Structures are given as C-alpha cells and as structure tokens.
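> tool_call: predict_assembly(chains=two)
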Amino acid sequence: MKKFNCEQLSSKLDELIDGSLDDKEATAVRSHLESCPSCRSELEGIQELLTATRSLPRSIEPEHDLWSGIAESIEQQRIVRGGFNRARTIGSRNLWVAAAAAALLVVSVTIAYMAGLEQGRPQIARSPQPHPSFMQAAYGDLTTELETARDQLRASLDQRQDELSPETWSVVMDNLVVIDDAIERIEIALVDNPNDGRLNRQLTVAYRRQIDLLQRATRLPAEV
Amino acid sequence: MKKTALMMLVALAVVGVAQADRTVDETRPLAADGRVVVSNISGMVKVAGWTGDGVNITGTLEDGVSELDISSGGSRLTIEVELERRSRRGSAYLTIKVPTNANLEIETVSADISVDGVAGELELESVSGHVEVSGEPRSLEAASVSGNVIAASTALSSDLESVSGNIIVRHATGRLDASVVSGDIEIEGGFLESFDGESVSGSIFCAARPTDRGRFDIETMSGKIEMVVPQDISADFYIETYSGSIKNEIGPPPKRTDEYGPGKELRFTAGSGGARVSIESFSGSVKLRAD
C-alpha cells in the first residue's frame, strides 16, 4: 500500500473530501490519518469549514450596508440631479448596478464568513485551522469575485463622472488609489506567504473597502 | 447722460441683489417623535431640539434657489431646497427647530450639517460638507465623503464614516463604528461597549476605554494606531502587524511571528482581563501609550 508523509497527505485532503481519490490512494490516506493526530486535526478543520459554509444562509445582510444600499439604488431607480427633489431615471446605469449587486451578494456572504474565520482573533485561533490549500483556493475565488464586483461598480461610477464636482471626483479617485496601493502591497506580501491567513483576510478587507467606497460614490447625489 | 444711465444700472443691480436673498420663517406641526427629512445642496442646515410645538424653519435662500418646499404627511415633515431650473448653484442657510425627540434625516451636497440637542434617531449625510453633532441622540449615523464628522458625544449606537475627512469624537459612549479611508479617526475619551475602527491610510487615535466586557477591534492598512491606556485597565490585548512596528508602554514587548518573516504580535493581559482589545495593521505602526 502506498504510504504518505504528512506533507504529501496534506495535499490529498481536499481530494479525499470531494471523493476524487482513487481507491488505493484513499485507503493510504485513511491509513495515515488513523495514526496521525495532526493530519486528522487538519481534516477536521476542513470538514468544519465545509459544514459551516453549507450552513450559511443563501443570502445575508452584509456588513456596512453593502447589499442594502445597492438594492435601494435599484429600487429607487433615481438619482438626484441639480437638487434632491429633481430626480431622473438612471436608465442603463441600472444594468451595471444590478450586475454589480448580483456579484456583491455572492461576495458579501463569503466575505462575512471568511472575515470571521481568519481574523486571527483569540476565539478563532482555538478552532482547528482550515487546510492552507483550501484557504488559498477559497480566497483566490473570493478575490476574483471581488475584482469583478469592483470593476462593475467602477464602470458604473465612470458613467457618473459628469454629475459629480471635480473636487468630489478627485477625492473619490485619490482614495481609490490609496486602497489600490494597499491591495498591491498586500499582494506583494502574499507572493512570499500565499497561505498567510491574516494577509488573505486583509486583502479581502481592502477590496471590501474599495467596493464600499465605489458603492457609496455611485449613490452620491448629483452635484452639477 | 451716460453717467446717469450707469448709475441707474448700478441701482438696478443693487435692487436685484437685494431681491435675490429671501428670508424664510415657517412653522409646521409635527408629532413629538415625528421624522424630519431635510435636503439641501449648499449653504447650511442647522438643527436644534426645542420644547416648542412643531417645527420652526428660518433662514435665507440665496440666488439660484427656486423655493423651499415643505410638505408633511403622517408623522413626517419634508423640507427640500429646490434650485431654479437651469441653476447649478444656489445656497440655502436653514435653521430648524424640532421637537427634542424627533428623528432626523438630513442630506446635503456641500452644505454643512449641525445638530444639537435632538434625542431621536439621526441619519446625516453630506458629500463635502462637515457634519457636527452634539447632544445625546438615540442612534447616530453620520457620513461625509470629504468633510469632517465631529460628535461631541455618541449615541447608544453610532456609525460614523468619512472618506478623506476626519472623524472626531469628544466623549464616546455605547457602541461605535468609525470608518475612514485616508482621513483620521480621533476618539478623545469616554467609555465604549464596543469600538470598531477602520482606516486604510488614515491614523486612528483612541483614548476611550472599554467597559468591563467591552470589545475593541481596530484595524488599518498603513495608518498609525495609537491607543491611550489608563493604568488601571483590565483587558486582554491582541495586537498583530505584518510589517509595521508595535510599541507597548504598558506591558511586554512584541514577539516576531516568524523567524524569517516581518510579522510581529503582542498578546498580554492587563489587570484581570475581561475587556478585549484587538488591533491589526498591515504596515502601520501600533502604539499603546500609558495614560
């Protein structure tokens, strides 16, 4: 029977859970797990994470008004122009906002859970840590979705440039750059430490901050 | 002849200017716990709680403002500054007195907002104007993009946001969420059940102390974090930074999280513990300073 050391086995745990190992490898993995508390702990961590993920509601109210603000924007289908009482239909902007909202709904659920999972805070540190490769993959997926949501909101905001004063536009753009810089620095740090939970979490937090800002900027009343 | 014509033109211009500014003085009924909704583009919205009946609105409407539209329905009074059709600018300076327990929703573009002595729920938002609150509202949501958000005291539940402006709280109480991107957060004192402070590049200064079971979560990417800690505090501290520094004047020094990496962390209990203070930064420095 094939034998694995802990490092080799670590890369097989995801496959064991999703049933993609062949019979021989699965038997070898199970045999190792029976005699290795450390790897069993890793496996339990992954299983707990999956159980918790499955038990997540299909939709939740995200932090910081992420979804409700966008939903409100869609529902109102109005922005204020030249005065708060003179609204106009936003037309095609709805499509962008709706698309971004759909992406954000998925993202926000994940952010809320991942943020709680990887805060590195004391009550979490005592829990079994999820498998690094699982975390990396999960954060990778999340980052992609965040980027999509961000890009859609940015496209929506660009359509409003002529409605915001140059001063406000400048403040929004400058601060997007500030967050971009933070994202870039964290991503550079992640190159050397791809499995660092704190860095991964900080990256998602930075994206969330950027999305918060974009969402808020798209909802600002027209100034000109 | 030319001189006479010129003088007449000047006189007409002066009359025109004088006519441009109109004053407002209106009083409308409102339930003691009713909701007042105000929108204004530029100028000022100043609201104060009073024991009189209803809502009293006084102020000045400058050139470019079409009218002040005041409408009511149920327990809600709406006050909207309308600009002239082709006008892009028009300032209104409004002073509004409302029942002490009224709830407020105020939205402006560049107009500053100030609220004093209103005990209801406050929702205040400006694009570039400053937002300032004093008194003891039941709940407080205040936000500006580039303006400052200043609260003399906070509510049982307060949510303060700015992008590039500063958030300043003189005496914090209850549960406080404060969020900035490049602006700074300054909590000058008080007792908090919870404090959730976030910045990207802005600094965070906190001199408020947690209640016995209080929870502080303070986080920044590259800003500085400084917390002033009283000598008799009982709290568990959890501090982490990826590449920033940690300076601790009230307890043990930080440890490296990795022999080869740049991370540092500091975990210790002051007094008998109980409250929890979590601070996290990516590259910003963290300092715990003794009071």
